[in-house]
Design a protein that fits this description.
27% strand, 6-stranded antiparallel barrel, 379 residues
Length: 379
């Protein structure tokens, strides 16, 4: 893609990745407009010191390269969309991923509505790649490409850095958002990015990578849940024996597969399942109990990035898929069986630990290169 005639908006976070993106774009003779997205746990919340430091770093980097920086307030949108989604899912006993929805609803959503619509491309510091492919004949003759003006397929592809790859966080964005996305450092390793930042004396060069959920900053996640959902004590029961182990303070403080932080004697204990109606937390005893694993599970509301999943599978040179259910460098081989009502059954080649309803199952081709999309696990 020739970027010279493109209007580019860069989401500058104040971290090292987006700062190196700006350097890379300027090095190519481009002059993007920079934007800092202001979000937080609730619209009237005061900024914490980490948010102020983020903006200071973003300002310093944009000034270094003579690019203007504009602050876009997405507090309200984040609260009404992403945070509400998170609280509703957690309260219903699911394990949501707010960062996944932040990309779709805020970074490529609310921002586009406010300012991004004036630009051809939105650049970010995500570790992911984009590949464009001429429309295959089988696709040209079908009605699966919603926009008739689209003359190629845009694929979300993994980064060569397996640890930093962020395609799983991008697997819920819309097709038009993917076509508008630009990931200038997606082909790099994290160490390369750090070296560039140090060499170019960028302000965030030695900043640590952000951890945890993007809108919380330094706020503890359980404290945040307690603040908005309170506590709802209930029984903790050993699944195999029905024995009462203790009490929990609320099912939303626990996730399937959890081992640390349970605080029950005679352990170790693993969280196996939740009974929402009876407010019971079921656990299993042992260091690696078989009941903590699943080899097949249902996926609902599958969101396809480029083409319907059935067509992705038909176009793949190698049969089968790979998938992941959490942000790790591990991919698992599987086959996918279509079910009624648009659901799928994932048949993994090996048992998977900690499969939890509400998690996103992210599906890739057999070589875990192209990301096909993701759906919500439903046990």
């Amino acid at each position: 893609m020739n970027l010279k005639d493109k209007r580019i908006a860069l989401l500058l976070s104040g971290g090292v990745d987006s700062s190196v993106v700006l350097y890379e774009l300027v090095r190519q003779g481009l002059h993007p407009d920079c934007f800092y997205i202001k979000i937080g746990p609730e619209e009237e919340e005061e900024w914490d010191c980490s948010s102020e430091e983020d903006l200071e770093m973003a300002t310093a980097v944009s000034h270094k390269y003579g690019c203007r920086l504009e602050v876009i307030d997405c507090h309200q949108e984040y609260w009404h969309q992403v945070t509400t989604y998170t609280m509703e899912k957690v309260k219903a006993g699911f394990t949501p991923n707010p960062d996944v929805m932040c990309n779709r609803l805020i970074k490529f959503g609310a921002f586009d509505q406010k300012r991004g619509h004036d630009y051809d491309l939105i650049a970010t510091g995500h570790y992911a790649q984009i590949e464009r492919q001429p429309l295959p004949a089988a696709v040209q003759s079908s009605a699966t490409v919603g926009d008739p003006s689209v003359d190629s397929l845009t694929w979300l592809c993994t980064s060569p850095d397996p640890v930093k790859d962020q395609t799983d966080f991008l697997a819920q964005i819309y097709d038009w958002q993917l076509r508008k996305a630009l990931f200038p450092i997606g082909h790099m390793l994290k160490d390369e990015v750090r070296l560039i930042a140090e060499r170019e004396h960028l302000a965030p060069a030695h900043r640590r990578d952000s951890q945890g959920i993007c809108f919380l900053g330094k706020i503890n996640y359980n404290d945040y849940l307690r603040r908005y959902l309170g506590e709802q004590p209930g029984d903790v029961v050993e699944l195999a024996t029905g024995k009462l182990i203790g009490r929990h303070r609320g099912l939303w403080f626990h996730t399937i597969g959890q081992r640390k932080g349970l605080g029950f004697g005679g352990g170790p204990w693993f969280v196996i399942q939740k009974d929402i109606e009876r407010n019971i937390l079921y656990v299993a005893h042992g260091y690696d109990p078989a009941s903590a694993y699943r080899q097949q599970f249902r996926v609902r509301d599958f969101h396809a990035l480029t083409l319907p999943l059935s067509q992705c599978l038909a176009l793949s040179a190698t049969p089968g898929v790979t998938f992941k259910i959490r942000h790790t460098s591990d991919y698992f081989r599987a086959t996918i069986e279509p079910l009624a009502d648009g659901e799928y059954m994932v048949h993994s080649e090996q048992p998977i630990h900690g499969v939890a309803p509400g998690q996103f199952c992210v599906v890739y081709d057999a070589d875990h290169h192209r990301c096909f999309g993701s759906g919500e696990i439903a046990l």
